[in-house]
Amino acid sequence: MTIRAALFDMDGTIWDSPVDWREVRQAIGLPPDGRPITEHLERMSPDERARGAAILERYEAFGVKEGRPVPGAGELVDLLQRSGVICVLVTNNSRKSAGAVLDRHPLPFDRVVTRDDGALKPSPEAFSRPLRDLGMAASEALVIGDSHLDLVSAHAAGIRKIVLVAPKGWIRDLLPPDLPFHEARDLFHAAAIVSSLLEQPNGIPRDGPRRGSA
Question: What is the chain's percent helix, strand, coil content, to nearest 5?
Answer without folding.
Answer: 45, 15, 40
